[in-house]
Amino acid sequence: MSIQAKIGPSILNADLANLAEESQKLLDNGADYLHLDVMDGTFVPNLTFGHPMVKCLRNKIKEAFFETHMMVQNPEQWIAPMSDAGVNLYTFHIEPVEDVCKVTRLIQEAGMKVGLAIKPGTSVKDIEKYVELADLVLVMTVEPGFGGQSFMADMMPKVEWLRNNYPNLDIEVDGGVGPKTIDCCAKAGANWIVSGTAVVGAADQRQVIGDMRNVVKSYLK
Amino acid sequence: MSIQAKIGPSILNADLANLAEESQKLLDNGADYLHLDVMDGTFVPNLTFGHPMVKCLRNKIKEAFFETHMMVQNPEQWIAPMSDAGVNLYTFHIEPVEDVCKVTRLIQEAGMKVGLAIKPGTSVKDIEKYVELADLVLVMTVEPGFGGQSFMADMMPKVEWLRNNYPNLDIEVDGGVGPKTIDCCAKAGANWIVSGTAVVGAADQRQVIGDMRNVVKSYLK
């Protein structure tokens, strides 16, 4: 078994005015990584935060694995500052990008791992030729832009197709994933699980994270 | 005397991962308002934060006066969410806006005061026909986008022209303003003073804020 089950909380629905403490709490409760939702108001109709905040967070949290989910029109623009901010995995959407190979190369040259993301309306075939370049593929299970949306189960064939063709690829799902929807994600083959509301708002974060990880593990071969 | 001396720290160079605490500290040390720098990566080459963070901050800090400095390409887009987030004064740049009157009206209808901002390269004459619509005019004393830049004293004629023509207008300056540059701002007629690094990084924030306010007061008629 080469791929692992990982649960990455998104802090989008946490108290963003108290980001370091909220993030540390999630890590203390067993989060495997932090999924940081960067939105620019152009690629998606929401404006969250950028590298200055990620850098401040890194100054407080030295060791955790940071993924930035770049829901931005021009992902090339933020590679250098996000690398400087200590990001580990730079996941960007292929939809607005003309030269995916170039952006991928720049991310690697900046010392980060590469994630490729697709929106619900994007076919998995559109990402096929780039999969070999990526460390991870993110299949969005809601329209990106806001937290708290309902999970789209009809995205699971994309995950299945990726898992069937790339048994060792890290496949991430993001959007409406929680205890009620984790089973079909895990069964389809996702092994990196982003969870926002369901984890951040849980009375017992540790329990929810642990339960979700166990479901994913149960499907890993 | 109808206009007052106000010092509004910018938290751009504070610990953004701990925003509520940093902001409360500034208010406890005598800040008259908070100047919140919203940047979208399009109008300026930096991406800071948007309404989700401002709303979280408002949830923690109920009473303070919040100004959002909208360094964004489409200020109309964020009027409703910033009003919902509890913003008091919505200051936007006229440079990218086609219909300044319309945006101004929408801000007022959303229950916020209106600030009009101009970059260093924009003539004060370009804002003349809109001044009567505004509660405040912001004259940038650095290129907007980043904190820590050097103050541009050659912007002071804009402030003087505004003060001479509008004795009761709130005139704000932002960029490189601190104990060393406050005198020429106050002498020119600015009465709302944004200060980032000089206040946030001060060993004694209360002293710096108080000293700067006293300089401004000394020039108010």
Automatic annotation (TrEMBL), chains A, B:
<keyword id="KW-0119">Carbohydrate metabolism</keyword>
<comment type="pathway">
    <text>Carbohydrate degradation; pentose phosphate pathway; D-xylulose 5-phosphate from D-ribulose 5-phosphate (non-oxidative stage): step 1/1.</text>
</comment>
<dbReference type="InterPro" id="IPR026019">
    <property type="entry name" value="Ribul_P_3_epim"/>
</dbReference>
<keyword id="KW-0170">Cobalt</keyword>
<keyword id="KW-0413">Isomerase</keyword>
<feature type="binding site">
    <location>
        <position position="35"/>
    </location>
    <ligand>
        <name>a divalent metal cation</name>
    </ligand>
</feature>
<feature type="binding site">
    <location>
        <position position="174"/>
    </location>
    <ligand>
        <name>a divalent metal cation</name>
    </ligand>
</feature>
<feature type="binding site">
    <location>
        <position position="69"/>
    </location>
    <ligand>
        <name>a divalent metal cation</name>
    </ligand>
</feature>
<dbReference type="InterPro" id="IPR000056">
    <property type="entry name" value="Ribul_P_3_epim-like"/>
</dbReference>
<dbReference type="InterPro" id="IPR013785">
    <property type="entry name" value="Aldolase_TIM"/>
</dbReference>
<feature type="binding site">
    <location>
        <begin position="145"/>
        <end position="148"/>
    </location>
    <ligand>
        <name>substrate</name>
    </ligand>
</feature>
<keyword id="KW-0479">Metal-binding</keyword>
<comment type="similarity">
    <text>Belongs to the ribulose-phosphate 3-epimerase family.</text>
</comment>
<dbReference type="Pfam" id="PF00834">
    <property type="entry name" value="Ribul_P_3_epim"/>
</dbReference>
<dbReference type="InterPro" id="IPR011060">
    <property type="entry name" value="RibuloseP-bd_barrel"/>
</dbReference>
<feature type="binding site">
    <location>
        <begin position="196"/>
        <end position="197"/>
    </location>
    <ligand>
        <name>substrate</name>
    </ligand>
</feature>
<feature type="binding site">
    <location>
        <position position="176"/>
    </location>
    <ligand>
        <name>substrate</name>
    </ligand>
</feature>
<dbReference type="GO" id="GO:0004750">
    <property type="term" value="F:D-ribulose-phosphate 3-epimerase activity"/>
</dbReference>
<protein>
    <recommendedName>
        <fullName>Ribulose-phosphate 3-epimerase</fullName>
        <ecNumber>5.1.3.1</ecNumber>
    </recommendedName>
</protein>
<feature type="active site" description="Proton acceptor">
    <location>
        <position position="37"/>
    </location>
</feature>
<keyword id="KW-0464">Manganese</keyword>
<dbReference type="GO" id="GO:0009052">
    <property type="term" value="P:pentose-phosphate shunt, non-oxidative branch"/>
</dbReference>
<dbReference type="GO" id="GO:0005975">
    <property type="term" value="P:carbohydrate metabolic process"/>
</dbReference>
<feature type="binding site">
    <location>
        <position position="10"/>
    </location>
    <ligand>
        <name>substrate</name>
    </ligand>
</feature>
<keyword id="KW-0862">Zinc</keyword>
<dbReference type="GO" id="GO:0046872">
    <property type="term" value="F:metal ion binding"/>
</dbReference>
<feature type="binding site">
    <location>
        <position position="37"/>
    </location>
    <ligand>
        <name>a divalent metal cation</name>
    </ligand>
</feature>
<feature type="active site" description="Proton donor">
    <location>
        <position position="174"/>
    </location>
</feature>
<feature type="binding site">
    <location>
        <position position="69"/>
    </location>
    <ligand>
        <name>substrate</name>
    </ligand>
</feature>
